[in-house]
Design a protein that fits this description.
This protein is an alpha+beta fold and about 80 residues long. The chain has one domain.
Length: about 80
């Protein structure tokens, strides 16, 4: 089996004490689909990030850091620091 890439969107809501509470993780079919979903969610959430991860179930290899391709609003520091 070859490596597979998943496209994901994580939205965040404001919580007490300037904390961010994550919504349910959304799996998308493509990078463009993830970007559109993130842009739509950005209108009603404190922050949102769209990213991809690549993994190979056969070998157990996976990206140690996701590739972020869209971010908007308030997001946790770990997503802000990613390229």
């Amino acid at each position: 089996m070859s490596p597979q890439t998943q496209f994901l969107v994580q939205a965040f809501n404001a919580a007490k004490d300037d904390q961010l509470k994550p919504d349910r993780l959304i799996v998308c079919r493509s990078a463009e689909g993830a970007r559109r979903t993130a842009q739509r969610l950005a209108l009603s959430r404190a922050g949102v990030v769209a990213f991809s991860i690549t993994s190979d179930d056969e070998t157990g290899d996976y990206d140690e850091e996701p590739t972020v391709f869209y971010r908007e609003g308030q997001i946790p520091d770990e997503f802000s620091a990613m390229p």
